[in-house]
Amino acid sequence: MTGSRPRVPDAGVIPAAHLSPAEFVENGRAVLDWLARYWSHIEDYPVLSGVRPGEIRARLPAAAPETGESFDEVMRDLDRIVVPGLTHWQSPNFFAFFPSNSSGPSVLGELLAAGLGVQGMLWATSPACTELETHVLDWLVDLMGLPADFRSDGPGGGVIQDTASSATLTALLAARERATGFESNRVGVRAPLVAYGSEESHSSLLKAVRIAGLGGDNLRSIPADPVTRAARPEAFAALVREDLAAGRIPCFAAVTLGTTSTGAFDPLEEMGGIARQHGVWVHVDAAMSGTAFLCPEFRHLQAGLEFADSYCFNPHKWMFTNFDCDAFWVRDRRALIETLSVTPEYLRNRASEAGEVLDYRDWHIPLGRRFRALKLWLVLRHYGAAGLRDLIREHVALGQEFREWVEAADDFEVLTPAPLNHVTFRYRRPGAAPDDLNRRLLDALNESGRLYLTHTRVPAGVALRMVVAQTHTTRVHVRQAWDLIARTARGLS
Ligand SMILES: *Cc1c(COP(=O)(O)O)cnc(C)c1O
To answer: Residue with the nearest Cα to atom 1 of ligand 1?
Structure first.
């Protein structure tokens, strides 16, 4: 092979059933045009789909097509059948849950990964797939102010996982083995292991504890501060003491930086210090808010990283990289690899055996893996670190402005600290039950189709969450959202 680009093969060498190169290009252009139009007109759609359960399936044929259909027909059905059933996560008026951001460079990176179709389970199965991933995750260590130990040229390293849920499970498995001298891997979990997480921890923590065989009852829920919703370190210390006194083995603590419910930040430094004293693995879950740490001025919220054994965040939430893409690092990769490595004969190869390469199949649960680093690489190269920081700062500034508007309104209140772009708030009216009032407000807002918000519960009751982080959200959208929220609330019967 010479030249830097593959040559387009003659149509004649491709069986007729496949798309010819020319047809592929033509259909591909149609898809890109379609997406570009969709993104530019996305505000024309109600943010939430209004379909009823089963409505989409009822429009689909009962059986798969026996003979191939034309691409145009498929695209027509995309408009006719699929689009009405979409909730528009790429709408700038999407303020619910957390964003699942896409962006031009990310989609193009995803397309390249799909077309290359490489399987990066081992270094040897596609060296660039592994090395680009290792390299981009090393870049991120530096860009986010993470400890140098997390870099792959030190004892640690990073890997892309599908989700934060998988990252947390992977960390827990390594912690379990570290705590038991790799015994659980052989004989099952016999040691009385316990794990810890704030009462505000993500549900994926309990799921991980169950899957890892610790048993859900052995997840200790650390009470959170009634106002800040951050885990209380003295409560964590008390639980650890209690478990030790009862002969149990504290093994894993999840510290959340930016909780799903209210955007609370657990005190990593204090919790880390307690965990370190007892050899407890500290896993930092910064799935949503990790992206903020591209900006040095927000890094005080992750003080205490020297105690972290592992760390994850989701570029697929706020960092303009489409789902799925969770970045996961460990301080010491040996425990992880020893926990997950199983090598049958058919995977043996010289590079792995020489110990010169990373084989990412040993860093997560599946064997196979796709080339997700490409989209991350395209995002980092398109925006540049400075470009990303500007966008993140803009979202945080808008979140703060929204918080100020809520604070300035006599009939609204902000319920938790909200240092970044996640504001937890509610409407209040003398003589009205606040939970009922806010549930009705939420329904009215979402039924309007003009934005999408979700709720949570804090000690004071039902709260609305406003998360300003969608790729295309600007000040106009946030201002419109606030005007609509205030007007709708005041108009409630
Ligand atoms: C979103 C989120 C998760 C779950 O993320 P997945 O990638 O969907 O598994 C876990 N923890 C926190 C703090 C989150 O924000």
So the answer is: 287
Give the global pTM.
0.94
Q: Is 155 left (phi over 0), alpha (psi -120 to 50) or beta?
A: alpha
Q: Supply the residue whose CA is at minimum distance from atom 2 of ligand 1.
A: 287
- Cα(202) to ligand 1 centroid in Å equals 7
CB of 164 within 6 A of ligand 1: the answer is yes
Half-sphere exposure of 330 (CA within 13 A, CB side): 25
Whether residue 287 has its Cβ less than 6 Å from ligand 1 = yes
SS3 call for 99: coil
Q: With beta carbons less than 8 A apart as the criterion, state whether 331 and 149 touch.
A: yes
Q: Is 201 in the pocket of ligand 1 (CB under 6 A)?
A: no
Mind listing the pLDDT tens digit for each residue in 222-250? 999 999 999 999 999 999 999 999 999 99
Q: How far is CA 339 from CA 43, 50, 352, 358, 372, in A?
A: 48, 46, 17, 15, 23
Residue 40 · residue 445 · CB < 8 Å? no
Which helix or strand (DSSP H or E) is residue 351 part of? helix 350-353
CB distance 95 to 83 below 8 Å: no
For residue range 371-397, list pLDDT tens digits in order.
Answer: 999 999 999 999 999 999 999 999 999
How would DSSP label each residue in 105-145?
HHHHHHHHHHHH----SSGGG-HHHHHHHHHHHHHHHHHTT
Decide the pairing of beta strands 310-313 and 157-161.
unpaired
CA distances from 396 to 203, 213, 387 (A): 26, 39, 15
